[in-house]
Amino acid sequence: MQPREVASRTTFAIGSAEEVLKVIGLPEFDIASRYDLVRVPLHAPPLSEEARETVLTIAPKIARTQGPHLNLRLRIKRHPSPVTAAGAAGLLLLAGLPGAFGDLARMAVVGLGAVIAFTFFYYGWVRVTAPRG
Question: Facing residues of 11 across strands?
């Protein structure tokens, strides 16, 4: 389908599963020209470890209006934060090193604990991936 001149202003509605993905602001926008660029700010609430899926639908608001309909399948998953992981490791070092000064073995154990804490906070306890398909 080739783009045609837009004869009038058309309102499009945006929808998705609210618990997975929220549209910030009004869930609609207007198109008045084929050159219009529209930005749609989205927010994903804090998720658990598993990936969540939803369909983002963009379609003309009035059902009788002819126009493109978009159903975009989205997969949303939590990305680890290196800042959080580094903070956990740093707190462990700050708490453990003062008591371990002077003993190299204790300092090594505290350092190893900080590395383990960083790894668990960054990668999670268990890494579960959903099957592709």
Answer: 30
pLDDT tens, N- to C-terminus, the chain (133 residues): 455 555 778 888 998 888 888 888 899 988 888 788 888 888 887 766 677 888 888 888 887 767 678 898 888 877 667 777 788 788 878 888 788 778 888 888 888 888 888 887 777 654 444 445 4
Complete edge-to-edge strand list for the sheet that includes strand 70-76? 28-31, 10-15, 52-60, 70-76
Could you tell me if residue 28 is inside a domain?
yes
Query: Nearest Cα to 124, choosing from 43, 51, 45, 75?
Result: 51
User: What's the CA gap between 133 and 131, in Å, rounded?
Assistant: 6
Q: What does the DSSP 8-state code read for residue 45?
A: -
List 28's β-bridge partners, or say none: 13
Q: Six-digit token pair at 47?
A: 């998720």
The count of domains in the chain is: 2
Which residue range(s) make up the domain with 103? 82-123
Burial class (CB in 10 A: 0-12, 13-18, 19+), 14: buried
